[in-house]
Amino acid sequence: EAPAEREAEETPPPKPEEPPLKPAVVCCGLACLDLELGGASDGGREAINGFEAATSRAGGSAAQAASALADHGVAAVAAAPIAGDAQGDELARLLLDRGVRVDAPPRFDAARTGLAVVPVFSDGGRGCYFGAGANADFGGEDVVEGVARQVARGGVLAVHVGYPHLLPRLRGVGLRAALARVRELVPNALIS
User: Fold this and answer.
1) What is the pLDDT of residues 152-187, one digit of tens each?
2) How far apart are CA 93 and CA 96, in angstroms?
């Protein structure tokens, strides 16, 4: 085998490019890799005895909202706890493939990305088994920093904070303080 052929086989595929810098909707909050098990058999008592196919999807409110916006041509950023593990790499790739800018706080690099196993049963029913991973440590400071980074990148159209009730550090007083700081940073942006 020629050296050029070996090199071509060893070269990893190029990573999707980050979307261009421009005003965007910043989607903050829960993010996980959804592992959807299609055609799962329901063995009762929450048992999965088999499934026909497994598909990875961008899951959690931040990732899903950003993906839906990007699908409709709206610039979107996922400011979420996406770690530097294999699940995080897959989640980031899925988002980039859809045109979403990924803004994972660097402090989560050594953490574990959240994972949801979602059986879709043959009868149409669904289940969900969730491991929070880095979501357990995502807090108000991460929301504020994600918004501030996007202000510097090109501006903020709106800020969406998804599933704060599932993020222990982004509830009650912590959520209120983060939203007040976000309002100071982007006084004219819609906040949901």
Assistant:
1) 999 999 999 999 999 999 999 999 999 999 999 999
2) 5
